[in-house]
Design brief:
Helix content of chain B: 10-25%
CATH topology of the largest domain in chain A: Alpha-Beta Plaits
Radius of gyration of chain B: 27 Å
Order of helices and strands of chain A: EEHEEHEEHEEHHEHEEHEE
CATH topology of the domain at 767-923 in chain B: Barwin-like endoglucanases
Strand content of chain B: 5-15%
Largest sheet of chain B: 6 strands, mixed
Low-confidence stretches of chain A: none
CATH architecture of the largest domain in chain A: 2-Layer Sandwich
Distance between the termini of chain B: 43 Å
Number of strands of chain A: 13
Mean pLDDT of chain A: 90
Largest interface: A-B, 37 and 38 residues
Number of strands of chain B: 33
Oligomer: heterodimer
Shape of chain A: elongated
Structural class of chain A: alpha+beta
Mean pLDDT of chain B: 90
Strand order of the largest sheet of chain A: 9-2-11-10
Chain lengths: ~300, ~900
């Protein structure tokens, strides 16, 4: 990537109107390709992520596994999931899968977010959180089909992998990619990565005896900008719960196209109703307390 | 490594065993992945556990810790029976055809000929070649012995190789140094630096181990060193014959090939299964896959064997490596791109430490340390300079014949003008070793009160040795202890060892001095990696506070001691005579030291052949310029060429690789002579042309009458193929040693399976001679050994994790976050039987002591059937002790893993048995 590349915004959460500057520039879609079949679980990517993003250390405890912690944290965006998996022929596999934000083409978090500008999607595919605009409502957590965003109760903000948008914006690869010693992590355009992944999957099928080897790039979120090569693409769940068909909750898929206009319409209709009510009935006046005349009898206000 | 890290990408087949590179060498493991991705190479992983490496393997076999020789012996048997052999290579580049003396006996009963039951030392005189030249039967097809060898080796020998005409061929195949496979890394796993690493680098300079005694006298080859209980003095060392008898038909009943066939015919798949616990069908699958590179004798493919301290840390570790080297010679894989016997060193500079004499019995460049029989320099040179031993028609470079040049130049580097011909080059100043000074033995003497003080630099003594309690008990006996470290460690606070009582504390009178050392990023200098590259690094930050770099601390101590000696003392000469001509004597710049190690001319030196003259004062371009007349100085002949008049070669960073073989001639500098794959003459057939045209390393150019190539030829550059000089130039034979004669190895010329000292079974091969008959054991009150009868019924092995580096990173929050606590890996079935769940505290006990940590219940270790008995193995990572972030918060039990391991050693490399000892397991 050339150094002149900038991050061109494609979508902004809860932003009224069009995205400023959209289509001013054409950008390639970037993609991280993770060949889970050559990951050795060394955790260099975990360390690189913590260091580059300057995340504070946290406490961990032993949990009967080589996995650093059970799931990603607000200060730990990149986690290799270790899974012992028995194949049909009885042989063991030790699956290691780097788990992080998948940077969906159709990001559930962004759909769910009600705060203007808290989540943005760039033209290159990166989905990035802007913590200064985050209102801490945590709707993004429920919008994500991969269980990625994490809430920091102290700052009341949500965090996740940014695909190192700061590095990518400067023409560099993400920190995890740079640190990977076996070359299991690759970075480039989506088309290149897809080709690379398919070629590797074919090799696994033809040479290594993994007949179900394939590429994970789920259509249900219009594809992702992090894709995997898996020994068995028919069983992504074995890799630490990678969903076979990730789905954004129904309520959020309706949110933007239907619910949001609907609710806006409801609000508008209410206002309109009030207007006509005003026009029809005039302003509502407070009824004054009954007054007594000099005779001590209640007097009625004259009707209009 | 005989080859190098990058070269792994050229392989077609990997056997990774006794090592877990994906765990411990993740950056280097990249090349294994590249081979798989780019060449469809296969990876076979054999390990007691399903490791990170196993996760990448095409075939994983779970082996019982300590049964590796049985597995590799089984592979040799399979290769011979199935004719998966490199025929020409075997006949011409190994000693397969050599005839062994009458009286030599194979160890059917567990013993080779010559064993003395009282001294437990072998008389090795029958472990030798027979004198006599060509004894090939008349009319025999020279390849007849090779199963199914229809075409016969003869046809491939230039000039024809009919018996009788062999003389004209002078097929010269002698000597192998890898095959002698020194067990190098000793403590690598646990010793942060070199001190404890005995012997040479496996696969690199095994010549040191094998080749450089007169006819390869190894450590036990007689002489006081290694002569255990040698009250009556050592027997004279037998000599290798000058004209070896050989039978190119390989049919002579006493030829090496026939003996080898006989020796390993006992290692049947059934026997392999009984000993290793690997089911026959799985073993056969692996054997077929690995040897498939020589299917139908095709020589194009290459297979590599990759190992680390999983092989060295046994009472027979050196012999495991040797078995691997023999297998690689049989398959013709040594010297070839994508082949070799590749030791992965466990520390960033352990190779350098070994090269520079970090072991008690070698000087820099693997020169021998003198012993008391070396009454003068001439006696030392006579003892340590080999003479050729080969069929007289053959040729042998015998490069160690240059020993006098290396030795004189080294003495000039030590003593400068104080080393003169008239005073025997100050040889009398050098220490002579009257006994072994290996790490474990030093601590044994310390325990016995014979050692009064210790400098512990670059190692955490309590943690790295076997039997931590014994080490702590030994430190208690010291008058003083100096520890140079960057953290407060277990050694400098040895009194915190768990279980130390208040009374015991009162009894400790050791004065401890702590010196603030510098961290790796605060020092410059050369680091030598597994691939033998010397790489220069710069300082990133100056040492903080009062911390000082090692050389400054050492220089200040040395200069002070020298001042004290100036006013007299016992034998002050060695201290006063040392040359110390550095621009800053108190802190010698490492660049100056590196230049001194490379060597320079003291007078004009001329190379007659090339007519080049190096002027007095100039840096030498390489070891070919070294002289034995005092006109050159060199701190380590192997590193000569690393800092020439052209500057620091180790700092070169040229990324061009015209051959595409990953040779990178302009990147740093690789000893020896910047060649990247050792013994690369063997990458060519007898006519000097590459076995595989797609991986051309070196070749004979008929036009220029020279060896040329993409790599630097590891050979006499002008020796034409017709002369049949052997490719293994560091051995007096010139050919690879399938049979290691005389004193190269304490246990015998071929490896034999012996049980670990603590074992669940009696050796199925010879139950009455179960363990290594010549292993080294100790006899203090702390040296206790357990048996199954006493309840120690589980095999235990120890290892490192990717996330930690020995005993340092427990001081770093990032690493602690990755793996916060010690644990014990336990098979699901065993945990189930004992009612243990993941996360429960368990107590592991050996005859020595106990260890407490949390249980990691896993499917990655399976129960095994060993000799018919159900047997469990467990595994313990070694990284925790009683000082560190979690330790200081009392989040761990403070017990070091080496509480459990026994003080028992390999007799060749003096490596303790850190792997494969017996324990019992309880809930804690």
């Amino acid at each position: 990537m050339s150094e002149e590349k900038t991050l061109q915004t494609k979508a902004i959460s809860a932003h009224p109107g069009s995205v400023p500057g959209r289509h001013m520039q054409r950008e390639v879609e970037v993609c991280k390709m993770i060949d889970a079949t050559t990951c050795i679980g060394c955790k260099a990517c975990e360390v690189a992520c913590v260091e580059w993003n300057d995340l504070p250390f946290g406490e961990t405890t032993f949990d009967n596994t080589y996995q650093t912690m059970t799931q990603t944290r607000w200060n730990y965006w990149n986690l290799i999931k270790f899974n012992e998996h028995k194949r049909a022929d009885g042989t063991l596999m030790w699956l290691m899968r780097k788990d992080q934000c998948m940077h969906c083409a159709d990001p559930g978090c962004l759909r769910a977010c009600p705060a203007d500008g808290a989540i943005v999607q760039y033209e290159n595919g990166i989905v990035d959180f802007q913590q200064e605009n985050c209102i801490g409502c945590q709707l993004c957590l429920s919008g994500c089909p991969f269980d990625i965003p994490r809430f920091n109760p102290t700052t009341k903000k949500v965090y996740k992998c940014s695909l190192c948008s700061d590095r990518v914006g400067q023409g560099l690869e993400p920190a995890c990619i740079k640190s990977c010693p076996t070359g299991c992590l690759h970075f480039g355009t989506k088309a290149e990565m897809k080709d690379l992944a398919e070629a590797r999957a074919k090799q696994l099928r033809d040479v290594s005896g993994f007949e179900n080897a394939g590429v994970y790039d789920p259509d249900s979120v219009n594809g992702t900008h992090v894709i995997y090569v898996l020994h068995d693409a028919t069983n992504p769940e074995a890799y630490g719960g990678l969903p076979k068909t990730p789905r954004i909750p129904f309520v959020y898929t309706l949110w933007k196209p239907i619910l949001k206009p609907l609710s806006l319409f409801t609000v508008f209709a209410g206002v309109l109703g009030m207007f006509f009510h005003y026009v029809s009935y005039g302003p509502r006046r407070t009824v004054p307390p009954p007054r007594k005349d000099e005779h001590g009898n209640d007097t009625q206000r004259p009707a209009r | 490594m005989t080859n190098g890290w990058i070269d792994i990408k050229n392989t077609d087949m990997m056997l990774i065993m006794g090592g877990n590179p994906a765990e411990n060498h993740p950056c280097g493991f990249k090349w294994a992945v590249e081979a798989k991705r780019n060449r469809n190479a296969k990876l076979i992983c054999v390990d007691p556990r399903f490791t990170r490496t196993a996760s990448q393997a095409d075939l994983f076999l779970q082996i019982r810790a300590g049964s590796d020789i049985a597995f590799l012996g089984g592979l040799i048997n399979y290769a011979i029976n199935n004719n998966r052999l490199a025929r020409d290579y075997l006949a011409h580049y190994t000693n397969a055809a050599f005839v062994i003396k009458e009286g030599f006996k194979l160890p059917e009963d567990g013993l080779y000929s010559g064993f003395n039951e009282d001294t437990h030392i072998y008389d090795k005189s029958t472990w030798n070649y027979e004198e006599g030249g060509n004894v090939t039967p008349k009319g025999a097809l020279v390849a007849a012995a090779l199963t199914g060898g229809a075409q016969g080796i003869a046809g491939n020998i230039p000039g024809g190789a009919r018996p009788g005409s062999v003389g004209s061929v002078s097929a010269n195949v002698t000597g192998n140094q890898h095959a002698s496979g020194a067990a190098a890394n000793a403590f690598e796993q646990s010793a942060p630096k070199a001190h404890a690493a005995p012997a040479a680098s496996p696969g690199s300079v095994q010549a040191t181990q094998g080749g450089h005694g007169p006819q390869g006298g190894g450590h036990q080859a007689g002489g006081p060193v290694g002569a255990k209980g040698a009250g009556s003095g050592p027997a004279p060392v037998p000599m290798l014959p000058g004209n070896v008898a050989y039978d190119l038909s390989l049919q002579h009943p006493r030829c090496v090939f026939q003996l080898l066939k006989q020796q390993y015919s006992r290692y049947t798949p059934e026997m392999v299964e009984r000993i290793t616990g690997i089911p026959q069908d799985q073993f056969l699958k692996a054997a077929d896959l690995f040897t498939s590179v020589r299917k139908d004798g095709d020589m194009k493919k290459a297979a590599t064997i990759i190992y680390a301290v999983g092989w060295t840390q046994h009472t027979f570790g050196t012999q495991i490596i040797r078995t691997a080297a023999m297998l690689q010679l049989l398959l013709g894989n040594v010297g070839r791109a994508g082949g070799g016997v590749n030791a992965l060193r466990g520390h960033s500079n352990i190779q350098g430490a070994t090269d520079m004499g970090g072991v008690f019995d070698i000087f820099p460049g693997y020169l021998k340390v003198g012993n008391p029989t070396d009454t003068d320099f001439a006696a030392y040179i006579k003892r340590s300079t080999p003479t050729p031993s080969k069929p007289k028609e053959w040729d042998s470079f015998n490069y160690w014949s240059n020993t006098p040049k290396f030795a004189v130049s080294l003495l000039k580097a030590f003593y400068g003008d104080n080393a003169k011909k008239e005073n025997d080059w100050a040889f009398h100043n050098l220490p002579k070793i009257d006994r072994r000074y290996s790490w474990v033995e030093l601590f044994d003497r310390m325990y016995n009160g014979e050692v009064k003080g210790l400098f512990a630099f670059g190692m955490n003594a309590v943690m790295i040795g076997p039997d931590s309690k014994k080490n702590v008990d030994a430190l208690k006996k010291l008058d003083w202890l100096v520890v140079c470290e960057i953290y407060a460690d277990e050694t400098s606070e040895f009194w915190r060892y768990p279980g130390t009582t208040a009374d015991e504390l009162k009894g400790i009178n050791t004065t401890v001095y702590r010196l603030p050392g510098a961290g790796f990023a605060e020092k410059d200098g050369n680091m030598v990696n597994s691939a033998r590259w010397t790489q220069w690094k710069n300082i990133a930050l100056p040492p903080p506070g009062d911390a000082k770099v090692d050389q400054e601390i050492l220089a200040r101590i040395f200069l002070r001691i020298r001042d004290l000696y100036k006013s007299g003392g016992t034998f002050p000469d060695p201290v006063l005579a040392v040359t110390w001509a550095y621009s800053n004597p108190l802190n010698p710049p490492l660049a100056e030291v590196a230049k001194e190690i490379n060597g320079r001319a003291l007078q004009d030196v001329t190379d007659e052949k090339t007519n080049t003259t190096i002027k007095a004062g100039q840096q030498l371009p390489g070891f070919a310029f070294l002289r034995d007349d005092g006109s050159t100085l060199c701190g380590n002949w192997l590193y000569s060429g690393s800092w020439t008049e052209a500057g620091c070669q180790s700092a070169r960073r040229d990324t061009s690789d015209p051959s595409g073989l990953g040779i990178y001639q302009g990147w740093s500098w690789s000893w020896p002579a910047n060649r990247r794959v050792m013994y690369n003459r063997a990458s060519c057939d007898v006519n000097g042309q590459p076995w595989d045209a797609s991986r051309k390393q070196v070749w004979w150019s008929e036009a220029s009458k020279k060896w040329v190539g993409n790599d630097v030829p590891d050979f006499k550059p002008d020796s034409p193929p017709q002369d049949h000089m052997g490719p293994f130039i560091m051995l007096p034979e010139g050919v690879g040693r399938i049979f290691a004669p005389i004193g190269n190895f304490a246990e015998g010329p071929f490896p034999e399976h012996y049980e670990p000292y603590e074992s669940p079974i009696q050796n199925p091969l010879h139950p009455n001679r179960s363990t290594n008959p010549v292993l080294i054991q100790f006899k203090t009150a702390d040296d206790k050994y357990g048996s199954v009868k006493e309840g120690f019924n589980i095999i235990c092995t120890t290892y490192r994790l990717t996330e930690h580096y020995h005993y340092w990173t427990k001081n770093n929050p990032m690493n602690v976050q990755l793996v916060p606590e010690p644990f014990v890996e336990i098979p699901v079935e065993l945990a189930h039987e004992m009612g243990i769940s993941g996360g429960d505290n368990v107590r592991v006990s050996s005859a020595r002591n106990y260890y407490v940590a949390k249980a990691m219940v896993t499917n990655r270790i399976r129960p095994m059937t060993i000799d018919g008995k159900k047997t469990y193995q467990i595994g313990i990572p070694i990284h925790w002790g009683y000082r560190g972030i979690q330790e200081d918060r009392d989040k761990t039990a403070h017990t070091p893993a080496n509480n459990l391991s026994p003080t028992i050693m390999d007799p060749n490399a003096y490596t303790p048995e850190f792997k494969g000892f017996m324990v019992k397991l309880e809930k804690a």
